[in-house]
Queue: 2 jobs
Job 1
Amino acid sequence: MTKPIYVLNGPNLNRLGTREPDVYGRTTLAEVEVMCREAAAGHPIVFRQSNREYELIEWVHEAIDEAGGIIINPAAFTFTSMALMDALKMFPGPLVELHISNIHRREPIYHRSYISPVATAVIAGLGANGYPTAVRAMRELIAARPAQSAGA
Ligand code: CA2
């Protein structure tokens, strides 16, 4: 059975494409979801967004049992949430932290990610194209892993 790739999106990303187009572009989150499904080429995708830290943590717990890989744009929780970092640390598969903007070119408050130290890879600054890039990279990361035995 092919385990899905979970693509999780944090607070305010449901408003993508509606403001600050110079930083975040004009692509909406619904369009990003379509881009992810195209890049997945049939690999199942679970695509979700929440403004609640609790809900994102619950989805990471769900992914520990269900997902082959996690791509997460934690948005502002990147810089604040040790709880989300603790949950992601428990995920045994590949984890890609994703940002639309290059957070390292921005103000110093955007430079210290709680998530990067527990991520397999980080993608930042490719705009909305970072999402399909992450999905393609995730398919390769999953394919490169040895098959998991039942119960492992
Ligand atoms: O570049 C990214 O993807 C971010 O994760 C987006 C976060 C920001 O806090 C991170 O530093 C970088 C914020 C997203 C704010 O949501 C918006 C939604 C629509 C338009 C503008 C912002």
Job 2
Amino acid sequence: MKTNEQLLHILNQFPLTEKAVSAEPFGNGHINDTFKVVTESGETTYILQRINHQIFTNVDMLQQNVTIVTTHIRRKLEERKEEDIDRKVLTFLPTKAAKPFYFDGDGYWRVCLFIPRSKSYEEVTPELSYEAGRAFGDFQSMLADIPEGTLGETIPNFHHMEFRLQQFHEAVEADPANRLVEVSELVDEIEKRTKAMCIQEELYREGKLKKRVNHCDTKVNNILFDEKGKVLCVIDLDTVMPGFVLSDIGDFIRTGVNTGAEDDPNLENIDVNMPIFEAYTRGYMETAHSFLTPLEIKMLPYGGRLLTYMQTVRFLTDYINGDTYYKIHYPEHNLVRTKAQFRFLQKLEEKASEMDRFMEEWL
Ligand code: ADP
Ligand code: GN1
Ligand code: MG
């Protein structure tokens, strides 16, 4: 952990318009460290982030992607003659040495403008969910014309289910923390579904699905809303990369449509909130239908199951590996997360045909 003084020294590498006085931890991310920066006037003016370079090993590529994406979106917003653009797209500050991040000897740091009068949510209403659906669909459609090969894969095979299962099988094989005995039932449940959950990769090989630029972390709390509940900005852009389109409906279903928390220790809290699903899908279809193929539209509810299954696999893999990837807040955290995600998957499976029927009006 850095002291306030060290954080202020890091901030001093960036051309802030006002002197920073403090940097406080902010948000619930599992990977990077986020701080909100208060300046002399008493306002929160910047966000400071330490990039986890054990996970994002190519920090140059990462920050280059983020620059391409934010520049592209800014241009689209200007073309549309939007007002208040500085609150609708993230603005990163190069360092005083004109670098996109600062390396302090052991970590990589970046600064962006804090978007004033904004709010993110861990739980949404149908109204907020509809707005979020519109925003993520619009985000993807604004990025749809970025030429192939422009954005790198900041984490290779990030949402590739076959690859995630390969990592899972390697963990099971090695069992480095001797935890396999306690999770054998969960391992069996994952094995039962492997074929059904790798359809995207299969369809891609058959030429029936293409890759698109996705956000790949469309958690509820990665959207900033204004005081009236309208979306300002899509944030957390580290995983924006080419992949399969289901990612961006899938992760919202996984987080926003769950009546419980991602790591809910009480499985009774976990269920499917259909009005939130319907509202998100309606919003998303309004802005995304122009580029989605009928096959992709048909598969959107499957995306929710897929991303929930993928997250179950990823949390369980990390638990079996002895908690090397996600930040944990207590020793069993990854196991609790796994069980909560798996319960939600079962609930989504129960609702699969109802969700599929909901898509029919767009087909
Ligand atoms: P993490 O990787 O930790 O999830 P995020 O970039 O999502 O990092 O930031 C964590 C939280 O900080 C967000 O959920 C949001 O509430 C807040 N936040 C992030 N960036 C901004 C910003 N530019 N302006 C206002 N709030 C922000
Ligand atoms: C991580 O950084 P954060 O907390 O928004 C993870 C996502 C997972 C999510 C689970 C780079 O996201 O893929 O879905 O945790 N990000 C990375 O909550 O692995
Ligand atoms: Mg986030």
